[in-house]
Amino acid sequence: MSPKNKKKLLIIRIKLDKLDNKLLSLIKNRTYLVKEVLKLKEFKKEIVDRKRINFILNKIKNKSKKLNIDTKITNRIWKNMIWSYIEYERRNFKKK
User: Fold this and answer.
1) pLDDT < 70 positions in the chain
2) Confidence (pLDDT) at 94
3) Would you say 93 and 47 are in contact if contact means Cβ atoms under 8 Å apart?
4) CB atoms < 10 A from the CB of 60, how many?
5) What pTM does this model have?
6) Could you give the CA distance from residue 17 to residue 11 in angstroms, rounded to a whole number?
7) Long-range contacts at 8-14 (CB < 8 A, ≥ 24 apart)
8) How many CB atoms lie within 10 A of CB 69?
9) In whole angstroms, how far apart are CA 43 and each of 46, 86, 89?
10) What domains does the chain contain, in order, with CATH numbers?
11) Alpha carbons 80 and 17: distance in angstroms, whole number
């Protein structure tokens, strides 16, 4: 890699690091909301809502298309996020 491209790469990586920090902040906010939702669930079987999951994934797919983002990327990200939070809810569910 040329020195010029190395410098460009470094600048892009710095921007990616800043963006990652913003994403972490958003994840923290999302986690708070998931905790609030979990407080409302009375039974462990309420944790997985297939209708809601499909609704979210379809909504993300449509928005991704409109924004010209590869739908395979956003679908994988959202599926992983959804199932990660489902696992979080299962670990933290407390029967009322």
Assistant:
1) 95-96
2) 82
3) yes
4) 19
5) 0.87
6) 10
7) none
8) 13
9) 6, 13, 11
10) 3-92 (1.20.59.10)
11) 21
